[in-house]
Structures are given as C-alpha cells and as structure tokens.
Amino acid sequence: xxxxxxxxxxxxxxxxxxxxxxxxxxxxxxxxxxxxxxxxxxxxxxxxxxxxxxxxxxxxxxxx
Length: 64
Prior knowledge:
The protein is built from two helices and no strands. The protein is mainly α and 64 residues long.
C-alpha cells in the first residue's frame, strides 16, 4: 500500500508528476475498455440463456 499512499499524497497536493498523469490516463482508458467488454459479454450471455431456454421449451413440446 506504500506506493498508493504516495500517489494519493501527491494528488492531494495537486502536484502530480507528468508520468503519473499519463499512467492514470492509461488506467482510465483500460477501465473504460473493460466496461465495454463486460457489456458485450453480458449481452452474449443473455442471448445464450434465451437461446437455451427456447431450445429447452421446443424440446419439451416435442417430447410432450
């Protein structure tokens, strides 16, 4: 936790180093990308569940 304490201290003083600003920007971009990927994965998951439910209902109707 030492590095994070130092980074937070620098940001609290409003004097972050340029390198820290660049790295923080990269982290924010990666986080935004991860969020978009999670949305896409949730959409795929929902489609798969709906497809499986439809398949199970169709199979049940044929057997019944």
